[in-house]
Amino acid sequence: MPFISVTIGVLLLLVLMMAFKMNAFISLILSSLAVGLLEGMSPVDVMTSIQNGLGSSAGNLMLVIIFGAAVGKLLTDTGGAQRIALTMVHTFGKKHVQAAAVITAIIVGIAMFFETGVVVLIPLVFSIAMVAEVPILYIGLPVIAALITMHGFVPPHPGPTAVANIFHANIGKTLMLGLPIAIPSIIIAGPLYTKLFKKDFLEVEIPKALYTEKKFTESEMPSFFLSILSATLPIIFIFIKTIVELIWPNSGLRTITDFIGNAGTALLITLIVSLFTLGFSRGRHIKELMDSFSSAVSGIAMILLIIAGGGAFKQVLIDSHIDKYIANLMEGSAISPLVLTWLIAAVLRVSLGSATVAGMTAAGIVAPVVVATGVSPELMTLAAGAGSVGFSHVNDAGFWIIKEYFNMSLIKTFKTWTVLTSIIAIVGLAGVMLFSLFI
Q1: Dihedral sign, CA of 35, 39, 42, 45?
Q2: CB atoms within 10 A of CB 166
Q3: Vertex 106, ends 100 and 108: CA angle to 5°?
Q4: DSSP character for 206?
Q5: What is the DSSP letter of 15?
Q6: Tens digit of each residue's pLDDT (9 = 90 or more) over 182-239
Q7: SS3 at position 304
Q8: pLDDT given for residue 155 in this prediction
Q9: What is the pTM for the complete model shown?
Q10: Contact criterion met (CB below 8 Å) for 423 and 188
Q11: I need a surface site. Which of 28, 65, 188, 270 has the fewest CB within 10 A?
Q12: Which of the 8 DSSP states describes residue 141?
């Protein structure tokens, strides 16, 4: 039965990654091969399917991944991210530094990968907390809640964009629905959850190695306007495209807005603009800026491979016609497709640790449901994203990044980071189900 083939393929993926500690990309390719062979495909056909899946997935997302990482690195290396944070704190004042930190993380999180955002903002979290005389985690927990939520819910981040492509969801609509779901998730998992802890629990000792991170002087940092422009320009382009689609669907403007509103194009334009506004205009040489670009690209190579591997797994499911079986199975199911998508992503997240693999695999399995049931592909994308960011523990690299950067014990990391991500996943699902009543 196709269901057994899928089950064996997913179990093989778990065993390879958890028991044998095999790389996620290799594990995905081997699991894809196993599922295809179990479904009666010839070895040649399976490899053709895998290659097609690799090409289509990586081809659609390569520009997003590369240019998104490059913009994030440029903000880091020029002091733009630091300028955004300091301006927010100055605007809100010491009494409202937590809100300022959350808004800063939301803005920075739009353009940056989670790991990059952590590296950029945690040293600033230490400085903000010391100036405001509040515990480190009082600022830190809301910041990481914002970063991981934006990373999992909001295009043009690679994970949500990849899942949106699988479901054939509109990127702009996904963004417009994702933000109203992401913000309550951040507030509940960050500032509100933080209030449950005593002040002593929120205190941590700052790792000495992090405290020596470079701090840009006032003259070294770009202006707030230029910094915020680089962080939000891709979102502006995507919003413009979506608005024109909704209000003037037959307008001649569509030729332009469809081009600049494409996620890859939007990030490419943002990178070019940022090279001038954050780089050349401030006396930085082309070699320095291209070194920053090279460093960013080398850091995201494995992310691209994992996403391509997820695409291969999805393609095998389609070419072996397992997708049709699942669609027929779901037609008579009483389980909401949104809940099912969230549940599969959450189980894979707990099992594998990788949010990207969890979201991509869940989307590949459940994608036929969109056609069979008519459910909103944008909400399916957000359901997969919500499930994929939750329940982080020791098999997740993010767990260890947070533990080490905040110098916490394992137990303390479970009480903060693991619970925080679980809250985001649950609140995210609730938001998706609420929107489903109207969409």
Answers
A1: negative
A2: 25
A3: 100
A4: P
A5: I
A6: 999 999 999 999 999 988 899 888 766 554 456 788 888 899 999 888 888 888 888 8
A7: helix
A8: 81
A9: 0.74
A10: yes
A11: 188
A12: H
